[in-house]
Amino acid sequence: MEARAIARHVRVSPQKAKIVADLVRGKSVEKALEILKFSKGYAAKPIGKTVMSAMHNLAGMSEHPIEPSHMDVKEIRINEGRTMYRIRARAQGRAYRIRKRSSHIIVVVEHKEEPAS
């Protein structure tokens, strides 16, 4: 069983968010949240919120409570979102473009089946 959560138009550069996403890809949800809690990357907070949302989505689908240690981050993707363009005034009447990039964060969490004894 798997569940997903999507955060759209998060104001963090996709290039920087991918660095943080690589830290937690394939880990258990419990370990991923612990890594994100102590990560220095700015993208760690929105990625952590999205992982939490996916975890709760999966827990809501099941009749029995599922521990975060029994869930894995199956897939985490960072896609490029909308770019806002701003103008910065420069010397001699020129204007330079400032690009404020955003990201779409997609997290898929799956339930680890316990081995049958």
Give a short summary of the structure.
The chain is an alpha+beta fold. Helix content is 32%, strand content 34%. Helix 2 (29-37) runs antiparallel to helix 3.
Portion in helices: 25-40%
- Mean pLDDT rating: 93
Q: How many E strands?
A: 5
Continuous helix count: 3
* End-to-end gap: 20 Å
Strand line-up in the sheet with most strands: 1-5-2
Order of H and E elements: EHHHEEEE
The unreliable regions are: none
Specify the biggest β-sheet. Answer: 3 strands, antiparallel
Characterization of this structure:
The protein is of the alpha+beta class and 117 residues long. Helix content is 32%, strand content 34%. The chain contains three helices and five strands; from the N terminus they run E-H-H-H-E-E-E-E. It has a three-stranded antiparallel sheet. It has a two-stranded antiparallel sheet with strand order 3-4. The radius of gyration is 18 Å and the shape is elongated. The model has no long low-confidence stretch (mean pLDDT 93).
Give a quick set of tags describing it.
single chain; about 120 residues; three-stranded antiparallel β-sheet; two-stranded antiparallel ribbon; 3 helices
What's the helix and strand layout?
Elements: E1 2-10, H1 14-24, H2 29-37, H3 44-61, E2 71-80, E3 84-89, E4 95-100, E5 103-111
Helix pairs in contact: 2-3
